[in-house]
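The data are quoted verbatim here:
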Amino acid sequence: MLGKLIISDLSGKRVIHLSLFLFIFLPALLLSNALSMVFSLSASLDLLFERSRIPHFVQMHAGEPDLTSIESWNRGRDDILDFQAVEMVTVDGSELFLSETGESEASSVMDVGFVRQNTRFDFLLDLKNEAVAPGDGEIAVPLFHKEKEGLEIGDTVTLKHGDTQLLFIIAAFTRDAQMNPALIHSKRFVVSEGDFDLLKKSFGESEYLLEYRLNDPNQAQPFADAYSDAGLSASGPAVTISLFRIINALSDGITITILILLSFLFCITAAICLRFTLLTSLDEDYREIGVMKGIGFPLRFIRKIYLGKYVLLGSSASFLGYIFSFLMHRAMTGHIRLYLGSGARDGAGYLLPLAGASFVFVIVLVSCLLVLSQIHRISAVQALRAGRLSTGSRGIRRLSLERFPLPGVNLTLASRDLILRGRMFLILGLVFFLCAFTILVPLNFLNTIESPEFISYMGIGRSDIRIDLRSDAAGQMRLDRIIASLEEDRDLGALVPVSTYRCRVRNAEGEDSRINVDTGDFSVFPLEYLEGRSPRAEGEISLSLLNAKELGVQTGDPLKIIEEDGIFEMKICGVYQDVTNGGYTAKALTLPSKGEALRHTLALDLRKGVSLGQKIQEYSEAFAPARVTDIDSYLKQTLGETIVLLRKITGLAIAAALTGSLLISSLFLRMILIKDGSQIVIMRALGFSRRDIGRQYLFRLLVVLGLGTIAGTLMANSAGQTLVSALWSLMGASRIRFVIDPVTAYVMVPAVLILLVVFTGMKIMKDDASIDSCSMADLNAE
């Protein structure tokens, strides 16, 4: 009997039940897919690191390292599993030609290095996660350049250096566990042993990657500190396996986080719609419930009738969301499969997304139980007498038309109804609020990350041009030469040289660690500080947010710098945001004593009217092999992967929110027309036309839509900003300010929502037959 009642109820009101099904299906789909991506990302990373035998610690060094001292130090340690020194021939971007257009990579922010395949560990893999082995005349190209230039197997790569020209055929594309992401500004090309020797003779400049695999990878950071303390070759940055994992997972991690947030937003929307649907059903069945209670049906049985229907609806929608997540999974994990490969899917790969779908079902079940708790308050006598539940106008039983001095009867009646049933319309407004919020938060963040202002979150001041120099044996001489040349350039408005050093510091608990410190005048191109200011005098230092947290210090505290000459104290003058280098950087005017610089950077501003493109070309030719880029290009190339993924998520959010607003508008109007059937009959009998009644309902819908959309827009630009900042604080940026396009945020999005909802409302009002079904028999029945 119970089953027949449930099936009979589901077979009616198909549009309402279908809409509710979709609202449960959507969050189940998104959350299942997000958790499936979590598993895929983790499994693919593990597989990539395993197949490549990634080093646990890497020290980069420009020039020839002192391998004798290094190997002597290695013999004295029992925590080293393996060691190798990987030579890399560096090539200036202006000498590398990848595209058929004949343009070089001079404008690229990437440092280019040519290597041989390693024989012990740190293998560079092809798209099947097998170690690449190019023959003579062949080359394996990083995936970054494949995606950037649209390269294919069989295309040519040309190197030109003076009178020397070398031509290679692309034989494979490489996954590099160390240098895959665009955030890493170094890329390795793989050539054969013979071609490597030829390149070394022709180009001559080499860097080394001093790589270690340890018995315990978790001890990589203490090992890095010990290496640095030993004073071994270290004219470049040092990286541990933990940073490799973070950087490889960063772009897809952002995508997963946004998907989870969207799924929670739609869970809330589904719960609201479910509550509204259940209350409407209880209102329609009020007399029937009273009759069942009057003839002795147990309360538990009555509750099962309603609960069974929504349990069946919720479980089927959640399960289908889980099933369809595997179809969506392939589209959403394209970036993971390309750059990391496809890890094996075991039982956890199916159970984790199933747990997400189950969570959505639990939300549905709890929402039903909360609403159905009202059944016990229904009196059989009152139900048979009143015939309906309260409409939510508790405390306002009557409201005369005299209190509404509005022009037009339709407007007056619609406004009066909005007040009388404010609670019901508030639920609809909350749904529109969530739809606007869901669209605008990812859209505003996409606009922010694509804007030039985002450079402030990368620990870099806003300038016209950036020049990067490698720190090699001739690095300081080259830097001095470039500075001298630039100081004579009348087209230049400002020039700030910055050098980066590796320093040993002591935190508040007396523990030592290493940080990278940029030295220079940071008042010319200032950063945006969370607190404090940039260093203006010797003895002052500012820290990135994550460094300040890691060291347990804040603005005004002293920071101990440990040098060979002794321990020096510097005062922390500010804390800024930085998502580069894992979020761990520092700024100072100068340091007590300086070792060998890791790198040099020049920030330039041009005078008004000077051509930026022309100057970049001029500087690239004059200062080769220095890398010259404009800041906008630097930003786009560095965050390119993240921007592409964020665009996909933004498109998904917009499509889902617009679909949701259309469905909820349809659901609401159909239910309220059913609910107001008797009132519509009376109004038609009193002489109101179909158009009059339709205008009243559309007016209510527009008022609720307008208020909900305005609130959602304002909240997205404030609370949404706080939400994104909280997520990015894990990466070093805790106070992100949205760059808002006012036309899009305040005009286009509300306009699209309004037009979509109005069109839906007009369509339903036109097709609904209940407005025309007026007769004296109906009136007498009322």
About this structure: Residues 390-397, 774-782 have pLDDT under 50 and may be disordered. The longest helix spans residues 241-284. The chain has 24 helices and 20 strands.
